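Feature request, filed as a ticket because there's no other form

It would be nice if the structure record came with a short human-readable summary line next to the tokens. Right now we just get the raw output. Example of a typical job, pasted below so the devs can see what we mean:
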Amino acid sequence: MKKLLIVILLSPFVLQAQETNRKIRFGMKIAPLFSWIKQDFDLNNTSISDDFAVDGGGLRLGFNWGPQLEIILNETFLISTGVDINYSTGKLTGRASRGLINYDFNQVYKMRFIELPLMIKGRTKEIGHLRYFMSFGLSAGFRYKANTEFSEEFGGNEITTTNSNSDAYINLFRGALLVGGGVEYNISANTSLVASIVFNNGLTNTLKDQQKVEQTTGTLYPLDDFNFVRERGITNHMMLNVGILF
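Raw output as currently delivered:
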């Protein structure tokens, strides 16, 4: 009986020691996200008419999920990484002309990236069952699929072109800066629910240059009628992460 009482009294301290001595945590997260394209077209190209204009198409809903791994450096600092499967989309809208005909165009990009984040995470000591944290780092993304839907409207008549293999429009690599913060709720000694908001700020051009060089003549030509500019666009995401760590 005395031995059982001693075990019961010491068990919280044993669990706390196990928690303190752990060096690695594994888990999984899911994250709805809002993405958009920050356009940066080369409007200094002298071939572009004065009535050419382009704007971002606003926020669009996407999704992100994947396994997580955290390396515990000490009680308050960790290294956070994992593999993110990122389903994002963006839209550009604009106005242009072909000869004497003015038209509106829309460009929708649906992108799939495998992203490898690496962040430093600083967290508070446990307050009740909660820890608050901030995170900062970088992400390397690699395109594995892209779809596009381009449309143009002439006087009420709309022509739409879809492409399910759009590697020609989306760059293979995407670099990003990650900044976020959130909260952990401790369920048991080794299990925590995690919720955070992370801003995924693109650092590299996501959209490929839409002008190609004709091999025989050396002249530039567009991939399609309304992509005749040196096109640039940086994708950004605001992610709402929910996950569990063991």
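Something like this underneath would help us a lot:
Helices lie at 2-21.
The longest helix spans residues 2-21.
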